[in-house]
């Protein structure tokens, strides 16, 4: 994001990547600054990062950062592991990322363009079992709470949130082995679709207002979710 805000790549990229970086003319640099309408952030997980020795010579997209990263520290995962091995559920991370983006990139308008959690596609499970997804419901609740925290406590300009995904689908290297959807897709029965239990919470969250508390919710939890619902309904400028 440095080129979009400062007109050039950060100093450490020049140090690590050198002549492989594209070079901007003065005119191009000025055109780049502030040229975006909004910043889209995909957030799924957080890793621990550790510096690699300065004489590291490998060349490549991942190695240029000169760090190693892992979802565990001292054998303890940063959060519960989802269906795919790389996804550790760590809702606090989205708050930290949003706050960092605001502080370092001049308070841009932000949309959460992807956020979600998957589970393993088990053909042996019954439909009832497949639709029972408390981990997904809790994950969305906790991530939305942290988005709200960034908005209220840090002044981050978040305009929207997109859940990944509306329905189960082909997931890159995982194919159909995992399911991210709010709607279950029956791949063996003409792709028939069924709402998972998390859909009920999402519908309630999007429809209700501050005078309609969540059933069985604690007072504190209800206050947080009321705030989320009000923010979701607030009109936005085009």
UniProtKB/TrEMBL annotation:
InterPro entries, sorted: GH, Glyco_hydro_1
Membership in a protein family: Belongs to the glycosyl hydrolase 1 family.
Annotated stretches, region: Disordered: 210-238
Organism taxonomic ancestry: Eukaryota, Viridiplantae, Streptophyta, Embryophyta, Tracheophyta
SUPFAM superfamilies with a match to the protein in the record: (Trans)glycosidases
Name of this chain's protein: BETA-GLUCOSIDASE 24
A GO molecular-function descriptor: beta-glucosidase activity
GO BP terms, alphabetized: carbohydrate metabolic process
